């Protein structure tokens, strides 16, 4: 039977669904942002960029939900030792800080613009208010720059997976990919 919660041998189904869903949504966002920056006047850039706010909002909600789920499962997570544990925690803290900051400042900018915000047609912010300059300036200054910093951390995160898998051979990827056979055999061996 599939494990819902995390345990010492791997991440549960809920954590893995959150992780890979967010990976796909971030891939969409970063492809769209890259195309917007490098090939703005193309149909493919317009297509991806046209969903940037909607997908960003879904990501924001998903990050909050995943963060809450992670806190619930914190003591059940697969253990790490020594300095690697410290670096892993710092790296994940940086990822989460930026995953909250980037959409937060975008929402502040949106609210300050006086324009409506209706992801997927669901009205969340009514338009028509006065423009609030500090809010739009903050969003304009921070959103894109923090987004590119987040992309750099995502690449670092992926690079560490390769290091764990290829050099250290410690099955980190299997714990997040859901190698159920390996987890079940480890659980049986521990009993």
SSE blueprint:
Blueprint: H1 13-38, H2 43-50, H3 52-73, H4 82-113, H5 133-168, H6 172-177, H7 180-190
Helix pairs in contact: 1-2, 1-3, 3-4, 4-5
The portion of residues assigned to helices is over 70%
**Uncertain residue ranges:** none
Shape: elongated
Largest sheet: none
Proportion of residues in β-strands: under 5%
The helix/strand series, from N terminus to C terminus, equals: HHHHHHH
Oligomeric form: single chain
CATH topology: Fumarate Reductase Cytochrome B subunit
In whole angstroms, the N-to-C terminal distance is 16 Å
Helix count equals: 7
> What is the domain tally?
1
Structural class: mainly alpha
* Average of per-residue pLDDT values: 92
Q: Identify the CATH architecture.
A: Up-down Bundle
- Compute the gyration radius: what is it? 19 Å
What's the total count of β strands?
0
- Return the CATH class: Mainly Alpha
In short:
With 191 residues, this protein is an all-alpha fold. It contains 7 helices and no strands. The longest helix has 36 residues.
Task: Give an account of the 3D structure.
The chain is mostly helical and 191 residues long. It has one domain: Fumarate Reductase Cytochrome B subunit, CATH 1.20.950. Helices cover 74% and strands 0% of the residues. It contains seven helices and no strands. The chain has helices at residues 13-38, 43-50, 52-73, 82-113, 133-168, 172-177, 180-190. Helix 1 (13-38) packs across helix 2. The radius of gyration is 19 Å and the shape is elongated. The mean pLDDT is 92. This is Cytochrome b. Its cofactor is heme b. Its main location: membrane. One of its GO terms (molecular function) is metal ion binding. The chain crosses the membrane at residues 17-39, 51-72, 93-111, 148-168.
């Amino acid at each position: 039977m599939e494990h819902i919660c995390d345990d010492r041998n791997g991440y549960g189904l809920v954590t893995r669904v959150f992780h890979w869903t967010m990976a796909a949504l971030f891939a969409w966002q970063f492809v769209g942002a890259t195309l917007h920056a490098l090939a703005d006047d193309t149909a493919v850039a317009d297509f991806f960029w046209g969903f940037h706010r909607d997908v960003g909002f879904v990501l924001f909600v998903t990050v909050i939900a995943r963060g809450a789920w992670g806190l619930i499962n914190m003591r059940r997570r697969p253990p790490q030792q020594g300095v690697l544990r410290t670096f892993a925690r710092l790296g994940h803290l940086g990822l989460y800080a930026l995953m909250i900051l980037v959409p937060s400042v975008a929402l502040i900018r949106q609210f300050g613009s006086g324009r409506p915000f209706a992801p997927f047609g669901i009205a969340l912010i009514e338009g028509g208010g006065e423009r609030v300059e500090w809010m739009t300036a903050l969003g304009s200054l921070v959103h894109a720059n923090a987004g590119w910093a987040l992309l750099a951390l995502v690449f670092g995160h992926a690079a560490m997976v390769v290091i764990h898998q290829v050099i250290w051979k410690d099955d980190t990827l299997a714990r997040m990919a859901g190698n159920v056979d390996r987890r079940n055999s480890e659980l049986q061996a521990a009993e």
